[in-house]
Structure formats: structure tokens, C-alpha cells
Specification:
Layout (H helix, E strand, L loop, with lengths): L7 E6 L2 E6 L2 E6 L3 E2 L1 E2 L7 E6 L5 E6 L6 E6 L6 E2 L7 E6 L5 E6 L10 E6 L6 E7 L2 E4 L5 E5 L17 E5 L7 E2 L7 E7 L2 E6 L6 E5 L7 E2 L8 E6 L4 E5 L2 E6 L4 E4 L2 E2 L14 H4 E6 L5 E6 L2 E6 L6 E3 L7 E6 L5 E6 L6 E6 L7 E3 L7 E6 L5 E6 L3 E6 L4 E7 L6 E5 L5 E7 L5 E7 L5 E3 L12
Parallel strand pairs: 4-26
Antiparallel strand pairs: 1-2, 2-3, 3-5, 6-7, 7-8, 8-9, 10-11, 11-12, 12-13, 14-15, 15-16, 16-17, 18-19, 19-20, 20-21, 22-23, 23-24, 24-25, 27-28, 28-29, 29-30, 31-32, 32-33, 33-34, 35-36, 36-37, 37-38, 39-40, 40-41, 41-42
Length: 463
């Protein structure tokens, strides 16, 4: 049986391609075939780049926590950590001397998403900033020219973004130290690469990220790929051919015949990350609710709802075994039914389920409940009050399946909802300004609200 992997961050040297799958480095020939694993690290690896002579492989690794620069032989072997900056560092290229690794880092910068280029010798030492200011990518021409990418992050991260940090490419064609903007396109540019006498790059100015090129003076723009469903991402070159990934696949583009080709990978993996495993339940514990008689409890963990007795009895899962996420599961007043938030149809809605699972669930679709944040059940009636991401306080009658907006804040989410023992009132905290909140109560029958405390500071969690 053929196993399909998710292949990312390819780099190429002659007939060898190195890529990332299952958070490790793998290698395969350009023509495809069986992939061979190069690393089996404890931490995530990304952004590999093969040296110009093909002997060494630099990559970003998290083996010891932060994203740092590592280097290893291209054919496999132990890796060596080169940087100890404790910041976010991404390998972007090598210098033509085969000795110097270039990486982008936010070290010593005031903002986490600001990057500049650093260089470090493959044998180790102190990394040094390069004299180019803000930049995330660099590529060298054969005559010493330099092309830089500023704000050139992955365009697929924010598709068709056109804000102030869209990717821009700058070029110093004659290595004089004077840079000029390469080209003006209404799109987000990334991965500038100098191949022969053209500058190749990724752009989504025509809607979907594809591979383009132009001359060093910005003229003669050409489109080279026609991917329509997924963006072309993380392109890399050895100066002759270009590799990139689209969706979960790798492609190679050869400028000599102007054709791109899928790299057919035979992925032989034990799929260790998909093995069944036992985890610390406390890490995945999301929510709980005691039953009306305090003899049973509902627990939500990893998007699944479970009911159990407090002292004995089996644990019962409520809802679909897989494929649906449940949240905010609560007992109703009779102790035989429960209400929860389900995303079975793609959009979240209220659902009433029976504890004995003898009847099908009742789905309250069609109610514009938004993204629920909290859910509280009346102690006397089939009523629930929920708060949502729109800062609303909403009452829902489970019998009539009608929704009533009780209150709304202009500043923050409503929080600290508490029912009165007779089920006739609810108390809650409502933000009156960005700095203050007061306690309010609402009479359920009339829907009238009353402010209980003056909003001097923050009054929260009434009960």
C-alpha cells in the first residue's frame, strides 16, 4: 500500500532533493523513488539548504528548544548546533564560498516578526549580522550580484494579503552596494532566486501563488507554473533547477525547458507519529460539569464528551466517536439529558443528547449563536444562557428552540454568568468601558436588566 506524506521545505543540489516530512529530513532523487530518512530528531526540523558543493546540509532545528541553526553531512550523519541565540532563526541560504551559512533572525530586534540576515561559519563561531538591514531572503548571481527579499514570508500563510508588510524584492545587480526595487506587482512576493540571467520568485498577484521570473532590471515578467488549487511555497534553487512544494507534493522546475514536474516519492515510513499512545489526561482536560444530584460528572477532553459516576460505574462517551468536536457539555436539570456545542456540520450549533443514548440527539440548527464562550443551564427549566465572541449574552429556550438577546457589551466578552436557585434571574459581569465592568442582573421572564454595582474598577464573577 502506497503511503502519502506531507512534504515541505525542499532544497536541491544536482540530482538530490532534501525535504521535510514528519518533522524530519528526508532525501530523494529529482526523478523520484524511495525517500531515505536523514534525521530522527526529538525536535522539529525545517528550512534545509544544501551547500553549493553539495557536501553539507544546514537546517533549522528545535532539538533543544528554540529554533537554532544546525549543520550535518548531506548524505547523513550527526548534526552540530551552530547558534545559541534563543530567538527565531531560519536558514535561508549559503554563501558561494561553501563555508558560510546565512540565516534570518529576529535577534536583537524590537519586534518578533522583524528579521535581518546573519552569517556563521559551518565550523561554528560567532554569528555576525550582514549589512543589509531588514531582510528574510538572499540569493547570489554568478557575477556577484545580490537579490534580497524583505518581508518575504510564506504568502500562503495569509493568502492574497496586500497590507504594509507584503513581500518586496530588492536587487544590487552589479554588487556596488546600491539596491533598487526589482519589480512592482500587486501581490505578495517571496523566495527570490537568481538563476542564470533571470530573477525567479513566488507571487500571488494573479490570485494563487505561482512561480514567476523577470530580468534583473524588472522587465520581461514571465509566469512559469499554473497551479490553481494550492499555492507554490518555499521555492529553492541550486542555480540550475528550482524545487518547491504545492499542497503536500514536491515539484521541480527546469528553466531550460520551462517545465515543472511532480516528484513522485515512494514514502516508506513506519508512521510512528500516528501510533496509538497513552497521554497525560490532565494536559488535554478542557471542561467539566457536575450532575444535578452531584453523583455524576461530565468531562470534555480533546473535543470529546464523557459521562461517569463519581464513585463507580463505566465511562460513557457521548457523541460521534471521531470527526466532530464537542464543547461546553452540560447536564440538564433532569439528569437524563445533556446539552453541548457541536461542529458536526462545519458551523457550531446547540445539540441535546440523551444520557442513555436511546433517542437520537436533537439539533438546534438555524440559531445564530456565534462562537460560544460559556454555557450555563437553568436549575429549574429547559433554558440555557450562553456568551459568545460577539460580547453577547443570549438566552435559548430548548423547548421552543427560540433565542433571545439579553445584553451586549461594546468592549469585552460577558463573563461570570450565574443562575439564581429559583431559575428566575441571572447575574453576570458586563464591561462598561475598556477599563471597568459592573455586576448586572437580568430577570428571565421579562428580559429586563438592572445594574447592581457602579463601574469603578472591575467587578466580576457574581454568584
Amino acid at each position: 500500500m502506497s503511503i502519502q506524506g506531507y512534504y515541505r521545505f525542499p532544497t536541491i543540489h544536482e540530482n538530490q532533493v532534501v525535504f521535510v516530512a514528519e518533522d524530519d529530513l528526508w532525501t530523494v532523487e529529482v526523478s523520484g523513488g524511495i525517500a531515505r530518512r536523514l534525521t530522527s530528531n526529538l525536535g522539529e526540523v525545517s528550512h534545509p539548504f544544501i551547500s553549493p558543493d553539495g557536501q553539507y546540509l544546514a537546517f533549522t532545528g528545535r532539538e533543544e528548544g528554540p529554533a537554532e541553526v544546525f549543520v550535518m553531512p548531506t548524505l547523513g550523519g550527526p548534526s552540530k548546533r551552530l547558534t545559541y541565540l534563543g530567538t527565531h532563526n531560519t536558514v535561508v541560504n549559503w554563501k558561494p564560498d561553501n563555508q558560510t551559512i546565512i540565516f534570518a533572525s529576529n535577534a536583537k530586534l524590537p519586534f518578533t516578526r522583524s528579521f535581518q540576515l546573519f552569517e556563521i561559519n559551518q565550523n561554528g563561531g560567532i554569528s555576525q549580522p550582514m549589512p543589509y538591514g531588514s531582510a528574510r531572503n538572499i540569493s547570489y548571481g554568478r557575477d556577484g550580484g545580490i537579490v534580497l527579499g524583505r518581508f518575504t514570508a510564506d504568502p500562503a500563510r495569509w493568502k492574497r494579503y496586500r497590507g504594509g508588510t507584503t513581500g518586496v524584492i530588492w536587487i544590487d545587480p552589479d554588487h556596488t552596494g546600491e539596491f533598487q526595487k526589482l519589480i512592482n506587482l500587486d501581490g505578495n512576493l517571496a523566495s527570490p532566486m537568481w538563476v542564470e540571467n533571470r530573477i525567479f520568485f513566488l507571487s500571488d498577484h494573479q490570485g494563487i501563488g505561482n512561480l514567476y521570473s523577470c530580468l534583473p532590471d524588472g522587465e520581461d515578467l514571465q509566469r512559469h507554473t499554473s497551479h490553481q488549487e494550492f499555492y507554490a511555497r518555499y521555492a529553492s534553487t541550486d542555480g540550475n533547477r528550482i524545487v518547491y512544494h504545492v499542497g503536500a507534493d514536491l515539484y521541480v522546475y527546469d528553466p531550460r525547458d520551462n517545465k515543472d514536474q511532480l516528484i513522485a516519492i515512494d514514502f516508506r515510513t513506519p508512521q510512528i507519529q500516528r501510533n496509538r499512545k497513552f497521554v497525560d489526561t490532565a494536559r488535554y482536560f478542557e471542561d467539566y460539569d457536575l450532575g444535578p444530584q452531584n453523583t455524576s460528572v461530565l468531562i470534555v477532553s480533546r473535543g470529546k464528551s464523557f459521562a461517569m459516576g463519581n464513585w463507580e460505574g463505566a465511562v460513557t462517551q457521548h457523541g460521534e466517536p471521531d470527526g466532530v468536536r464537542y464543547r461546553l457539555t452540560r447536564w440538564l436539570k433532569d439528569g437524563h439529558r445533556l446539552v453541548c456545542i457541536s461542529d458536526e456540520n462545519g458551523e457550531e450549533f446547540l445539540e441535546i443528547r440523551y444520557a442513555n443514548e436511546q433517542k437520537p440527539p436533537e439539533k438546534l440548527g438555524g440559531l445564530d449563536i456565534g462562537r460560544p464562550v460559556s454555557l450555563d443551564v437553568s436549575p429549574k427549566d429547559d433554558l440555557v444562557v450562553l456568551t459568545n465572541h460577539r460580547f453577547e449574552l443570549v438566552l435559548i429556550d430548548l423547548e421552543s428552540k427560540k433565542m433571545t438577546l439579553l445584553d451586549r457589551s461594546n468592549y469585552e466578552r460577558v463573563n461570570g454568568v450565574s443562575w439564581s436557585p429559583d431559575g428566575r434571574w441571572i447575574a453576570y459581569s458586563l464591561a462598561c468601558t475598556q477599563q471597568t465592568s459592573s455586576i448586572k442582573i437580568c430577570q428571565i421572564d421579562s428580559g429586563k436588566t438592572h445594574q447592581v454595582t457602579e463601574p469603578i474598577l472591575r467587578d466580576i464573577n457574581p454568584s
